[in-house]
Amino acid sequence: MNIGVVKEIKTHEYRVGMTPADAKAYAARGHRVFIEKDAGRHAGFPDELYVAAGAQILSDKQKLFDDSQMIVKVKEPQASEYPLFHEGQILYTYLHLAAEPELTKALLASKVKSVAYETIEDHQSLPCLVPMSEIAGRLSVQEGAKYLEKQFGGRGILLGGVPGVRRGRIAIIGGGVVGTNAAKIAVGIGADVTVLDVNARRLAYLDDIFGSSISTLYSTEANIEQALVESDLVIGAVLIPGARAPRLVRRDHLSSMKEGAVVVDVAVDQGGCVETIKPTTHDDPVYQIDGVVHYGVANMPGSVALTSTLALTGATLPYGLYLANNGLEQAALKSRPIATGVNTYKGHITCQGVAEAFDKAYVPVGELL
Question: Domain 2-126+305-368 sits in which CATH superfamily?
Answer without folding.
Answer: NAD(P)-binding Rossmann-like Domain (3.40.50.720)
